[in-house]
Amino acid sequence: MTTTPTLRQHTIHHDGVTIPVSRGGTGRLLVLCPGLSSTQADLGELAGLLRLDHDVVTFDLRGHGLASPASRYSFAAFGADLAAVLADLARHEPGVAPVLVGYSMGADLAVHHAADHYVAGLVLIDGANPVPEPFLTDDLLPRLRVMWEDQAARQEALRGTARQVLLTATEIEALNAEIDAVRSAVLGRYRRIGCPISMIMSTAMAGHGDEEPLPRLNRNWRSGVERLTRDRPRVAVSWLDADHGLVHTHAPEIARIIRGRLERC
Q: pTM here?
C-alpha cells in the first residue's frame, strides 16, 4: 500500500511578504514553482505524485494562494520569491542542489534563476518558450482583457482559500506583457545554463480548435520550442496533446515524464 508522505510546512518572510512553503517525500530534492495565477494547491496532484519518490518543495508566489499580498507584482519580484525559497533551503541544507520544476511563468523564473545560480537540473512545463512572436498583440488584447476580467471576477469566490489570486485584471495584463518581453530574450539565458534541461510542452497551448487565432498561437508556441532546440540541441522535449492546463489534466503523464528524465540525469 502506498503511504501518503507527511507534509512539513513553514513560512518565509522577505521583501515585506510572507511565502508559505510545504515539503514532503523522500529522494531527490525538487522545487516546484507555480506560474502566474497558479498556486501550490493548483499543482497539488502533480506534487503528490512526485512526492512518492522525491523530496518535493512547493510554495506560493506573492499575491497567490496563502502568500500575502504585495505592493508590487513583477517578474523580478516573483523571481525574488523563488530565490528566497531556495536561499532558505540552502541555509538549512548547504551544498544540496535542487532540480527546479517550473510551470508556465514558473518555468521562466526557473530559467532566469538557473542562468545565475547552480541547480541540479531544470524541468520546464509549458513555459520559458522563446516564441518568435509576442502573444499580446493588438488584435488579441480586447479578447484577453475580457478573459482576465472574468478571471478576476471568479476569484472573488476563492478569497481566503489556498487557490486565491489577489491580482487585478490590469496587473495580470501588465505581467503578461512583461512575460512576452522576458521570452523575447530568454535564449541568452539558456546559453548560460549548464545543467540538464527537460521541457514538457502542450501541443495546443492556446486551446484546441481550427478557428483563428488558436492555430496561429499554437504554431507560435511550437516554433519557439523548435527555435530553442536548434540553438540548444541537448534540451529534451516531450509533447502532450493538451492545452496550457496540462498540469491539471495530465498530471500522471507529467509525473512519469519527470521521473523518467531524472532517472537518466
A: 0.97
| Cα–Cα separations (whole angstroms), residue 54 to 57, 96, 104, 178, 240 | 10, 14, 21, 33, 23
Contacts of 21 (CB under 8 A, 6+ apart): 9, 10, 11, 12, 57, 58, 59, 85, 88
What is the CATH number that goes with domain 8-263? 3.40.50.1820
Banded pLDDT at 263 (limits 50, 70, 90): confident
Give per-residue pLDDT as tens, 15-55: 999 999 999 999 999 999 999 999 999 999 999 999 999 99
Task: Give the start-end residues of each E strand in the chain.
Answer: 8-14, 17-24, 28-33, 54-59, 99-103, 121-125, 197-202, 236-240
Sorted by where each begins, the domain ranges of the chain are 8-263
218 and 205 Cβ atoms separated by less than 8 Å: yes
Which grid cell sits at 265? Answer: 540525469
Average of per-residue pLDDT across 146-160: 93
Are 225 and 129 in contact by the 8 Å Cβ rule? The answer is: yes
Contact 22, 40 (CB under 8 A): yes
C-alpha cell at 119: 541547480
